[in-house]
Design a protein that fits this description.
Serine Threonine Protein Phosphatase 5, Tetratricopeptide repeat
């Protein structure tokens, strides 16, 4: 509003004076902005390069494993972990190593790989998968309570069917059949009936339900007849 009472010449003088007084700050601001823009672009380029390197190493690891060269696969996995510890590909490599260890029944090695992955993988679906597999290893090691604790800490929408099945397995080991049955039922509800996993889970539910549970509803009327 103050400019309204000044003519064009006076306005020009004020602008020039302001520019002279603030020239250094303006120049510094411009330079800093350019540096930040350049640095951000360089960081994006560097990150893209690192991701490409990690992806290439993971592909090499997969190829070596497919060809049966486990020594090469382990060497590549170690390099990937050392050079790209925060990459999703390093976490995937750890998941693969854990799966291989579990197949050899080396549960301690599987747990170690999953622990590493859990400490380095970013939050999200992959982190939930790492936790789920860690719980499976805990259950295989006989630590049912620890397995339940792990999956209970997952977001409710994460791997609903798999989490429900694992909870059922763990609860059954703890002798909590009613709770196991409820967990299996919840897992079944989350599965497509056409999947092979649905049939297997139905078998587990049928086993935990058993004949006594099925016969229980008719026991009360029979007792009433005897009482009368």
């Amino acid at each position: 509003m103050a400019f309204d009472v000044l003519d064009e010449h006076e306005q020009g003088e004020l602008v020039q004076k302001w520019l002279r007084e603030n020239a250094l700050a303006i120049i510094v601001g411009i330079v800093l902005g350019l540096v930040l823009i350049f640095g951000w672009n360089q960081w994006k380029v560097h990150s893209a390069q690192k991701d490409a390197e990690a992806a290439a190493q993971f592909q090499a690891l997969t190829d070596a494993a497919s060809n049966g060269d486990e020594d090469a696969a382990r060497t590549i996995a170690a390099t990937l972990r050392e050079e790209h510890p925060k990459s999703i590909y390093s976490a995937l490599a750890a998941l693969r190593a854990a799966e291989d260890a579990a197949a050899r029944n080396d549960l301690a090695a599987a747990a170690s790989e999953l622990d590493w992955a859990g400490q380095h993988v970013p939050e999200g679906a992959l982190a939930a998968l790492v936790t789920l597999r860690s719980a499976r290893v805990k259950l295989a090691q006989g630590e049912a309570d620890a397995a339940i604790k792990l999956v209970d800490g997952l977001p409710k929408e994460s791997y609903v069917a798999s989490v429900g099945e694992l909870r059922g397995d763990a609860l059954l080991k703890l002798g909590r059949a009613d709770e196991a049955r409820q967990a299996y039922e919840g897992a079944l509800a989350a599965l497509d009936p056409q999947t092979p996993a649905h049939a297997l889970l139905q078998m587990k539910l049928d086993d935990v339900a058993g004949a006594p549970a099925a016969a229980a509803p008719s026991a009360a009327p029979e007792a009433e007849k005897k009482g009368s």
